Amino acid sequence: MEIADQPPAWMFELLVTLESDPSRIVHDDDLKSRGLEPTAVRRAFKSLYGHTFQAHQRNVRMAKALSLLSAGDDVTTVAQQVGFDSASGFHDAFVRTFDTTPSRADELTCMLFRPVSTPIGTLTIAATTDGICLLAFGGPATAAADIARVSTSLSCPALPGNNTHLDELVAELHEYFAGELQQFTIPLLLGGTDFQKGVWAALQDIPFGQTCSYEQLARCVGRPTGQRAVGLANGANPIAVVIPCHRVVRKDGSIGGYGGGRWRKIHLLEHEQRTLRADGNVANLTEGQLRLAFA
User: What residues have CB less than 8 Å from 55, skipping those under 6 apart?
Assistant: First the structure.
């Protein structure tokens, strides 16, 4: 029952290396010294991120540069800190990445994304400095369309990287899957229409370990005949698990579909049931017998 799409441990170690020292350029000889075959590394990064390891290094450097410039560091110092030999070379790279000059960095917001391993496979998480804006299934290459959609919705570029919000989300996901957390507290940043945001807010009101039907959810948001619209908004939820769209089921209590795969929905619902049963709160419920939150 092992998850097949977990990135290897060495990849996460490389990501930590890049994030801790963006000025360092990791060459093939460096990979070989770690016991890694460069061709295999390139293939793995292409599979997970959709781009090469060299491109990934460049993007991480530019994301760090934007962070430093936004904090007030001068261009020459930042260029050196992220490994550029000249300010002009850094300027050109910055313009290619962000379509604006380093002097206007404080006007930019960047969406940083990274993979995280969980019991339901690899997830792609993303955040700006304002909060979490994406949690999608699969690695970044699989979630590329979701990354692009949220990036467009928030009008900000997306680059691989890490920030405090992502670290906090990883910690909360670990606690959630360990049965130690029932309510996420991480700040969220949502695009979308007012109607979608209303549906996503209602999803967060469904209690841990319980479910509601599309019909009940439609009534909750003031659209009693709008089950289809509610279903579409539910499916467009950009932050799975944290905004628990997996808790919405069919009127008869059966599981129904799920964008991340029906098996993940079942896993999440059963996990929450197990967590509550461990506290003596809920009996073992089977498909078709799931408790409805909005009675």
Answer: none
Answer for the pair 207, 256: CB distance below 8 angstroms, yes or no: no
Q: What is the pTM of this model?
A: 0.87
Q: How far is CA 48 from CA 72, 144, 169, 197, 253, in A?
A: 33, 10, 20, 30, 36
256 close to 192: Cβ distance less than 8 angstroms: no
Binned at pLDDT 50, 70 and 90, residue 5 comes out as low
pLDDT in tens, 120-174: 999 999 999 999 999 999 999 999 999 999 999 999 999 998 899 999 999 999 9
Provide the angle, in degrees to the nearest 10, between the axes of the packed helices 53-70 and 9-20: 40
Axis crossing angle, helix 53-70 with helix 38-49, rounded to the nearest 10: 60
Per the residue annotation, which of 133, 212, 220, 245 is the catalytic one? 245
Q: Give the end-to-end CA distance of the chain in Å, rounded to a whole number.
A: 36
Question: Which residue type occupies 85?
Answer: D
Decide if pLDDT at 287 tops 50: no
Percent of the chain with pLDDT over 70: 93
For the chain, strand residue ranges (E) read 111-118, 121-128, 131-137, 158-160, 212-213, 248-249
Q: Is 245 labeled as catalytic in the residue annotation?
A: yes
